[in-house]
Design goal:
Elements: E1 5-7, E2 12-14, E3 22-24, H1 33-38, E4 43-46, E5 57-60, H2 85-95, H3 100-138, H4 143-171, H5 183-197, E6 202-203, E7 209-210, H6 213-227, H7 236-240, H8 249-256, H9 261-270, H10 284-301, E8 308-309, E9 316-317, E10 319-321, E11 326-328, H11 334-351, E12 361-362, H12 370-380, E13 383-384, E14 390-391, E15 394-395, H13 402-430, H14 435-461, H15 468-483, E16 507-516, E17 521-529, E18 535-544, H16 549-567, E19 572-576, H17 579-586, H18 596-606, E20 612-616, H19 623-635, E21 639-642, H20 650-656
Parallel strand pairs: 1-4, 12-13, 16-19, 19-20
Antiparallel strand pairs: 2-3, 4-5, 6-7, 8-9, 10-11, 14-15, 16-17, 17-18, 18-21
Helix pairs in contact: 2-3, 3-4, 4-5, 10-11, 11-12, 14-15, 16-18
Length: 662
Amino acid sequence: MDIGYSKAQFTWKRGNLPETNIKKRLNRGVANDKWITLFPNGSIQHLPFSTSDHCPLLLNIKSACEHIRSPRFRFEAWWTMEESIEQVIGESWESSSGTIVEKLERLQSRLKKWACFNRSNKEGVKRRLTKELETLLEEERDDETLARIIDTEIHLNMEIDKDEMYWEQRARANWLQLADKNYAFFHKYASARKWANTISKLLLDYERETTEAIEIDETATLFFQELFTSNEVGDVRHLLTGIKERISCMVNEGLLSPFREKEVRVTLNGMGPTKALGPDGFPVLFFQSEGLSSLMRIAKEEGLLKGAKASRGGPEITHLLFADDCVLFGEATATSAMVLKDILKEYESCSGQCVNFNKSMIFYSSNTIKKIKKEVLSLLGVKSSSNLEKYLGLPNVVGKRKKESFQNLLDRVLARIDALLAKQGWRLVVNPDSLVAQVFKAKIFCSTLWAIWGDKNVRIHDKTNRSSQKIARYVNSYLNELDGVGKNIGKSSKVDIKWKHPPEQTVKINFDGAFNERNHHSTSGIVAKNSECLILLSTTEIHKGVASAFAAEAIACRRATQIGLNMQRSEIIIEGDLKSIIKKCMASELNKSKIGAYIYDIHKMKSKNRKLRFAYTPRSANVLAYILATETLRKREVTYMIGSVPSYAKQQARNESVREPD
């Protein structure tokens, strides 16, 4: 893994002019888990450089900022497994006087001394028990020896459980399995958390970085002082007028009654070890959000704010609240903008939560004029956007035009693939003496030159032109023909039918299904190619609760039909190797077999595109889809690839791309 860096971001530069200057981070430091465990504070520092294109790297195994903190008191979970803990707490509590806080402070000092003494004897006890158990296991077995072995094992397991609980509390790993005795894992997990949570540097104003301990402390102190400095509290009574009374007199008397021991016990037991939720399960954020809802409700009831409607007869929506975001609706007028601004100000003063206008965004309907847009923007002081933002790379709102919503992702993937192919071609040009380039020269360049020369003669004498793709396919088929020379020819006279290229402007989608009778799982393998044998997409899926292999083929056919319908091409051919399925898909009458529901879905999709047709092909011409389905059933891995197939099917894809030479 990359161990990170400090100082400058880039390690290599080229070009002294702004238009030719290039900077990259070419050099970096990597380490495995063992090295990081030995040197948790190790880091790479990028030093200044002037005589070379590459900057020197300094590996520092010590932290530039080591804070010396006084140890805080923490009640350890493993203390509850000690026999003397109750006696120590009882004696300290009974011998102390004063308030509860004063008693707890004295108990802390008493427990620190007690824990220090126990910790020093802890490792010695475990070593003694381990050695004693080894001795007992070597002795002759009788009733007394077996009893001592059992007793020693119980005590040793108790000590191991204490270590496990100690590191579990620091690791905060809640998925601990009972009797796992894996405290070494929790030790490593806790060390990794400590290393990840250590603040070794801070980014100050003006993009300046510091690693000095004093400067880090001062900056952090100043930041939190400004953050938690309270302003004047607003008028909370106006906020509360929007919340209707829902508590009866009887319930109110119960709320005002003194706390009982049972209520306190239930409340404490309802809290998680690292959480602060009550028995009702609502966090504080829920009640803070209710304040904003109240203000929006008041403005709507007073006629100051008008919400949006999803339909003519639907209710008006003024706000929507999510985990940490909210969406407010209103008319695009100066009056509504001022009302929203006043609501947010009152909410800030009452709840202490401030709105981050730098991250806020405003959207307008299509019929809003520019003058009103500018006026509302100047009042609210937020950014404007004409298109909906994206969250985690995906659009927030997806309408009926799904192809346009996700086209950006497809374009980025295809651009990435083109960049990788161009990079590989650039390596051949830059490194002509490499082994790959030499193999290409010996195997491909000569054949390519010969094909280009032949195409030139055809253009001159026959007056016909061939595209570069056809020349490339001819070279590929010629090389495959040469590779097949000398191979043994089978005795069988049966000729396998190979996959055939579809006509121009046509896409062929091959499908196949695989079925597992033991768990009733099936898989679908689907691949789509054009007339030039270029793979448009390939996908594999896993289905549960499938009745038979017949149903598995029908499910794969339905998925292939759905993909063909979404492609929106002029001509689509759906090809499979099960003749009965293809016949049912081509038939027009209602199918009443066990797979009738799947066939009905296929007919319904086929009616939306009259140029979508089905064709039967033998298994020998459907090998690629068969490999995708069977390998997915074996590997239990689903895929969806644009312009390619998984690695285990690439050889078959290359074989099917071969066309008989002209």
